[in-house]
Structures are given as structure tokens and as C-alpha cells.
Amino acid sequence: MTDTIRISVDAMGGDNAPRAVIHGAHLALKERKNTAFIFHGRQEQIAPLLEEFPALKARSIVRHCDMVIASDEKPSQALRKGKNVSSMWQSIQAVKDGDADVAVSGGNTGALMAMATFCLRPMEGISRPGIAAIWPTLRSDIVVLDMGATIGADARQLVDYAILGSALARALFDQEQPSVGLLNVGTEEVKGLESIKEAGRILAAASGAGFAYHGFVEGDDLGKGTVDVIVTEGFVGNIALKTAEGTARQVGSYLRSALNANWMSRIGALFASSALTALRRKMDPRTVNGGVFMGLNGIVIKSHGGTDEIGFKSALGLGYEMARSRLIDKIGEGMLRFPLSAVTDLPASEPEARPA
């Protein structure tokens, strides 16, 4: 990979696109000067925005396409309609063609996963791709997956997610043996669905092959940061993600109300302004925006569709770090370490799982 990280961007993806996307790219470029962008979308909307940011314009290419995937389109419909011609598809195609190192989109999650899977194809040995998120905790950031790529997962898929999540943790946190836990209804080995217990047995036997298996973890371990990687299936993972985002906004609202309750509270807030600013940044979900599509032959980042330029900057920064740290190579290295014979006897996953 060259010193320049090339990011392919679906400029039309997201509720506030393309302005929030272009503005976010401007903020990302200020932090990482060796970034180049390829924006896919409607030239007549993108070009005037780039004129507002000359430095970004000098580091950007615009590839025009009229087709935009709507946020409410079904994945199958979006794939038939938008293959080869939509801004979303073309942003992924640039990665496949080698024009870019990573693709970023804030568009329809199901459509993006369908297109990314169809265009880039799953890596050999991976039964189903997943979405990983970087999760802030009391200890440090951790990796959680799957965050909603598909509903349900069998033992084979949970093991895949452990391999993929461990590779991401090694790439992000520079850890040789990240700790891995399976999210369950209890930490006892007898609890949980049979698929979770079977995955636990496989991971326990393979512990040391690029990760250290911790065992089962519970919901409160998400906030404590008990392990470096938490593995779950998409239905539970997506609920956990949305619950955490909602809780952060709820606590923030409570705090603002309390600090503005009376003049004494406002004076106290003034004296504690620096600490409150740090807390606000820590609780801001925009600063950890971006889900990594794991298990494909290329890197795709899903930004929250409703975010603003701060959130898009975070998603673009995450894509930059994934490309810079050679995520795909690290996943391949992890799969070579893992004894794949441990899962060869397990039944293959159903190929037509529905995106969440």
C-alpha cells in the first residue's frame, strides 16, 4: 500500500448527504493529510460543495452517477436496481478494482451489505460477513460484532465472528492475543442456546491461536470492557448498540437539565466546564461512528445514516485506520493461525440470511 490512503465515498448515502459527507471529509483531511477521496454521486450537487473546501477539492475525484439507493429500499430490490450504476455500488466497486483502499457509505445498511457481499465476495473460510463496531468502555475501546448484518447465528458463524473480531482488535489495538468473550445470558457453561455453548467449546479448544478465549460474558460486560472482543449475533448486537446510543442521549439530557435547574447549578457547571466538556465528548456517539463490514475481500465502513459531519469524519477516520493497519492481511493471518478443522464438521450456514 502506498503512503496515501484512498477512500471511496458514497457521497449520496445518509440523511444529510451530500453536505455532511463532504464537510466530514474536509474535517477528516485536516487530521490525516495523506488521504485522497473518490466521491461517487451527482456531480451537480457535489462540485459546489467541494468549492467551499479547496484543500479537499485538490485531494478529490468526483465520479458522476445519478442513481441513489433510498433508505427504505429492500436489499434485493436495491441490488437489482443499483448494481453497477448507483453511487453505493460504485463506491464498493472502486475497492474491488484497486482504485481505493476502503469504501464508506451512510446509506441503507441492508443494501450496502448485499452489494458489498455480492461485489467483494466473502473471504475463503468465512461463512457469513458481520458488522463490527468500536465500543467505548470504562477500561478502553473494545470490538463488538455482529451489530446487525444478519439475524441469528449458528456456532460456525459465531466462531467466524471471533476470528474476524480478533483480527480487528489486533489491527486497532496492536494486541497479539486479544481476549474474546461470547455474549450470553450468564457466565456459567450450562447456560445459553446450544449454538453459543458449541461455539464456546470450539473457541476454548483453539484459545491461543491469535486470541485468548475468556468465556461467556453478560450485558454489563459491554460497559465494563471485560474483554477486548465481544461476539454475539446480529439481532442482539443491534439492540445492544441502539440501547447504548439511546442511553447516552438520555443521560446527556438528564445532565443538561440538572445543570440548568437553577442559578446554583449553572454556577457549578461553569466551574466544572472543562470536565463536563470531556464527559460530553466521551458520551458523544458521533465520535465512534462507523461499523466495519468484516469477512469480505475488501474493507467497507457503514456510517450511521442520520449523523452529521462530525460523525462522517469519524467513519472516514475509521476507514483510514483499517486500511493503514492492513486489516485484510491481519484477518488472513488470523485464519491461518486458527485450526479450521475445528469447524469443518459443523453444518454450513444458510446463505440467504436477511439483513437486520
How would you describe the overall organization of this protein?
This protein has 356 residues and is an alpha/beta fold. Helices cover 47% and strands 15% of the residues. The chain has 14 helices and eleven strands. α1 (19-31) links the parallel β1 (5-10) and β2. The longest helix has 26 residues, at 234-259.
* Major sheet description: 11 strands, mixed
What is the overall shape?
A: globular
Tally of helical segments: 14
Strand content: 15-25%
Strand runs, count: 11
Order of helices and strands: EHEHHEHHEHEEHEHEHEHHHEEHH
pLDDT averaged residue by residue: 87
Lateral arrangement of strands in the main beta sheet: 3-2-1-4-11-10-5-6-9-7-8
Helicity, as a percent range: 40-55%
Distance between the termini: 33 Å
Computed over alpha carbons, the radius of gyration is 21 Å
Poorly predicted tracts of residues: 349-356
Which secondary-structure class do the elements indicate? Answer: alpha/beta
